[in-house]
Design goal:
This protein is of the alpha+beta class. It folds into two domains: 90 residues, PRC-barrel domain (SH3 type barrels, Roll); 73 residues, PRC-barrel domain (SH3 type barrels, Roll), CATH 2.30.30.240. Helix content is 21%, strand content 38%. The strands form two sheets. Strands 1, 9, 10, 11, 12, 13 and 14 form a seven-stranded mixed β-sheet that branches. The N and C termini lie far apart (67 Å).
């Protein structure tokens, strides 16, 4: 089951140890190198109130449920400066939402308005792209799979060109079945010949 990133923002974080909520998710931290959610920024009365809030490693999440995200304890939260790996990604200030989406040839497709992810692997799998005003009349949104992404930088997602997609589709359609038509050979062909001879 895929989840939308918009479902994460504002999602309550509940501690089994405390038996209740400790805060809510205010932002997801995505590693641009492999497009995976590696951590979540949490804010609330039980958490730190610094610029970055507290940080929750997604590996500490036991379960996504209807009532929120369940973790063992508030001790699973860390602060900015505690984990170098998180600090490096946070300092990049990378945000998937708002990225421009272009083809390799430079055609503008729109901007990322949302994305879907797998709650098991936390991989970003699809990007929901809001189309520019003129193109939005015909096609208000595009859904782009991570397999179509060729490059990611601070401001843009670069995707395959439309022509390449068409070529890939035509290659799939060029399949020729490898079988023998029984009506063209063997017994039936012999019968047809004998019928012609009788005429």
């Amino acid at each position: 089951m895929l989840l939308n990133s918009s479902r994460l923002i504002g999602c309550p974080v509940l501690s089994l140890h405390l038996g209740g909520p400790i805060g809510t998710v205010i932002k997801e931290i995505v590693d641009p190198n492999d497009l995976k959610i590696i951590a979540l920024k949490i804010n609330g009365p039980q958490t730190g109130d610094g610029e970055h809030g507290d940080i929750l490693d997604v590996r500490s999440v036991r379960e996504f449920s209807n009532i929120g995200m369940i973790i063992d304890s508030i001790d699973d939260l860390v602060s900015y400066g505690d984990v170098v790996r998180f600090d490096k990604i946070i300092d990049l200030n990378f945000d998937v939402i708002g990225l421009s989406v272009k083809t390799k040839k430079g055609t503008k497709l729109g901007k990322v308005s949302d994305f879907t992810f797998d709650p098991e692997s936390m991989e970003v799998l699809q990007f929901i792209v809001k189309r520019p005003l003129i193109k939005s009349f015909l096609d208000p949104e595009l859904t782009i799979s991570r397999t179509q992404i060729k490059e990611v930088n601070d401001y843009e997602l670069i995707v395959n060109d439309e022509e390449e997609k068409i070529k890939e589709k035509s290659k799939k359609q060029d399949f020729v079945p490898n079988f023998v038509n029984p009506f063209r050979e063997g017994k039936f062909a012999t019968n047809e010949a004998s019928i012609d001879d009788n005429k």
